[in-house]
Amino acid sequence: MDSGDLFFDLKEVKDPREELVRARVIARAYRRMEAVAINVGDLDLSQGIEFLRESAAQGIPLISANLMNPATKGLLFPAFVIEQVGKVKVAFFGLTNPQLPPVVEKAVEGAVLVKEPIQAAKDAVAKLQGKADVVVLLSDLGLAKDLELLKVVSGIHLVLGGHEGQYLGTPREEGKGFVFQSYKRGMCLGRLSLTVEEPGVPFQDGGRYRRIKEQISALELRLRTLQEQRLRQQTQGTERLIQQFLQEKAELEGELKQAGGPVSSGNRFLWMLQSVDPELPEDQEVRKWIQEAGIEKD
Amino acid sequence: MCRDPSLWSWKVRMCDDALLRGGALGLVLLVVAGALLLAVCITEAAFGDPTQFVIVHTNNVNGHLFGCPT
Hints:
heterodimer, A: alpha/beta, 6-stranded mixed beta sheet, 3-stranded mixed beta sheet, 13 strands, 19% strand, globular, B: mainly alpha
C-alpha cells in the first residue's frame, strides 16, 4: 500500500530520463510485492500523466478518487479497490493533493483536474456503503487536512497518510478514525496489524495502553537521573525539569487509568514503524533490475 | 451467528423432551435453553472468529530505492 509521492522527488532535480528509469523500477518492485493500491500523489504527476497511464496499463494498482480528466470530468484512475480478506471486505480509496507545485502544474497542464478532496471523499464513501466492512483512505493531503477530513466525513475507519512524510510512531485520533504516516524516502515501513471482529465498527488503538506504560517508564528513568543530579547540586533548571516531568507523568497516569487496560476485544489495531535496515536481505530479482537499469542504489 | 445446526437440534430436542415430560418444568427448561441459545448467538456475533491481517504501508518514497540509511 502506498499513499502517494512514490515515484518522483522535486527536491533533487535529476535528468528526467533517469528519473523515469528509477520510477519504472519502483513500479515493477511494487508490482512484484503485489501492492494492492497505490494512491497518486501530487509529485507523481511531475513527469506528466503518461508514465502513470503506462504503469496502470501494466497492472500497477493506481487509485485516486479526485484526479479527473478535465474534458470528460471522469476519473483518470479507479477511485478505490476492494480487497477480500477472509470474511472481511477492505476498501482502499485514494485522494490526491489539489495544491500542485508550479512544476507539476506545468507538467499536467490541461490533462488533469484535481477535485476538492472533501467532496470527493464523501462521494467515495457513499459509493462504498454496503460494499466494504473496513474503509481505508490512502491520502496525499497531509496530516492537518486528514484530521480535518475525519471531522467532516464519516465512514472512514483508517487514514494511511503522507505528503509531508512524518515519522508518526503514535497514530493521531480524530472522531472515530485514526491517521498514520510512515516517514519518507523508503526509510521506514508502516505495519498496521488489524483484528476485525465486528465489520463496519470503528477501531480501537490496541497499542495505546502499552505505549503509555512505556512513556511512564521512560519518564521515571529521566526523573531518577534528575533527582540524583539534584542531590549533588540543586539548580533552578533541574528543579523546573523535575516539576515538568512529574506533571507529564501525572497526566500519563491519568490517561492510563482512563484506558483501563489493554484492548482485547472489538476491532483493534497495532501500529508499528519498522526501519528498512540496509542489513536486511535484498530481493535478488529487484537487485538485478536495478543493476540492469544502470542506476545507483541509495 | 449460530453456525452449528447440531447445537440447535440438540437444545431443541432437549427442550421438546422436557416439555413432553411435564408442564412448568418443561417451560422453564425451554426458557433457560432459549436464553442459553441466545447468549451463544450474541457472543458469537460479537466476538466470533476475528479476521486478522497486516497492511504494509509506505508514503513519500519520492523515487528512492529501499535501503536508504535511517
